[in-house]
Amino acid sequence: MENAVLTEEDAAALPPPLVTVPVQRHVRDEVAPWTDDQVVAEVPVALVFNGISHVVLMCTPQDLPELALGFALSEGIIERPADCYGIEVASVDACGDAPQGPQAMLEQVEVPAVEVRLEIASSAFMRLKERRRSLAGRTGCGVCGIDSLQALDLVPEPRTPPPWLAQITPQTIFKALAAMPAWQVLNRATGAVHAAAYAGIDGELVAVYEDVGRHNALDKLLGARVMAGDVGQGGQPWPQRGFVVMSSRASYELVRKCARLSVPLLATISAPTSLAIQVAETAGLQLWGLAREPRALRYTR
Q1: Are 185 and 133 in the same domain?
Q2: Which of 57, 163, 181, 235 is most buried, by CB atoms within 10 Å?
Q3: Where, by residue number, is the active site (predicted)?
Q4: Same domain (yes/no): 46, 170
Q5: For the whole model, what pTM was predicted?
Q6: Mean pLDDT: which of 100-104, 170-174, 223-227, 233-237 is highest?
C-alpha cells in the first residue's frame, strides 16, 4: 500500500489537532481574567473512494490514513488491506463551494476540512457503488452508510475464542486502562477526547489513538494495527495476542468493528448497550464494561 504515511509537508498543511481559544474561569464567586486555553479540534473529514465521496466524519485531524484504512476495513468496504492501493490526504475548505448568502460575512467564513482519498480494488469499489445506489431515494436508519435494518450486520460470523484469552483477567484490563492517561496527550490538554488502546495479554499498552469520536478512535487504532505491521507507536512490536480497551461506553458499532477485525476482547470504562452485548455474544467476543478498579463487569461468556 503506497502513500499511506503523511510527509512532514502534508502534515503541516492539515488543521492542527489542538486550537487555542480565550476562556474565563468562574470558580464559586470568583471570576478570573480572560486567558488562553486549548480545545480539541473537530474537523469534517471526507473519505473519498476512487474519486467518490462516501462519508464525512467529524473527527480530530491526526492519524487520518490510519482512520481511513480502519474505517474501510471495519465497515466492510474492503475485505483485506491489500484491497487498498494508496491513501492521500489533502486539506480543503468546507465552505469553498457553498452558495453565497446575502450577508457579506459569509464570504469571509473558512471552515478547515480534510479529504482522505483512497484508491481501492475495482471489486470493492463496485460493491461500494451498489451500496450507494441503494441509498438513493430511501429513508436511512441513521447509521453511517446504512440504508436498511437488514444492512446493520447484527448477526456477525461467530468465532471461536483463542485459548490464550483465558490469561486475560480483570487485573490485566485494569493495568491497561490505568496506563492509558499517560498516552492521552490530546485529552490531557483538553479533557474532551476519547481513546482506544491495544494491549498485549500482559496488559502492557502498545498503542493509543485519540479522537473526539469513539468510533473514529477505534478505527484509527484498527487501521494502525493493520498498517504498522509489526511495530507500534513506542517501537514495541504489536503482539498477535492482545485486546482493545476504550475510554467510552461500548456501543454496538464498536463491537461490530472489533469482531470484523478478529479482536477477541473489548473492555470499556463505561457500560455497554444491550445490542452491544447481543452482537458480542453472537460474535464470540468477550465484552467487559464499567471497568474501573476494583470492579469490572463481564457481559459475555
Answers
A1: no
A2: 57
A3: 141 (cysteine persulfide intermediate)
A4: no
A5: 0.86
A6: 170-174
pLDDT at 100: 53
CA neighbor of 50 nearest in space, from 85, 93, 94, 79? 85
For 60-101, how does the pLDDT look when each residue is reduced to its tens digit (9 = 90+)?
999 999 999 999 999 999 999 999 999 999 988 776 655 555
239 in the same domain as 204: yes
pLDDT in tens, 106-119: 455 567 889 999 99
Determine the pLDDT at residue 109.
57
CB count, 10 Å around CB of 122? 9
* In contact, 73 and 261? CB cutoff 8 Å: yes
Range of the domain at 20: 8-150
Residue 208 lies in a domain: yes
Catalytic one of 59, 84, 95, 141: 141
How far apart are alpha carbons 221 and 89 in whole angstroms?
Answer: 18
Residue 211: which of 49, 43, 15 has the closest Cα? 43
188 domain-assigned? yes
Q: Is 141 a catalytic residue?
A: yes
d(CA 44, CA 61): 9
Quick one: 132 and 256 in the same domain?
no
b/e string for 143-170 if b means 16 or more Cβ within 10 A? eebbbeeebebeebeeeeeeeeeeebeb
- Given pLDDT bands bounded at 50, 70 and 90, which one contains residue 120? very high
Site of grid cell 473519498? 48
How many Å apart are CA 39 and CA 285, to the nearest integer? 35
Which grid coordinates belong to 150?
A: 437488514
Confirm whether 156 is domain-assigned: no
Q: Do both 122 and 39 map to the same domain?
A: yes
Task: Based on the fold, state whether residues 215 and 255 are members of the same structural domain.
Answer: yes
Assigned domain for 157 exists: no
* Confidence band of 123 (pLDDT split at 50, 70, 90): very high
| Cα radius of gyration rounded to whole Å, the chain | 20
| 116/93 same-domain check | yes
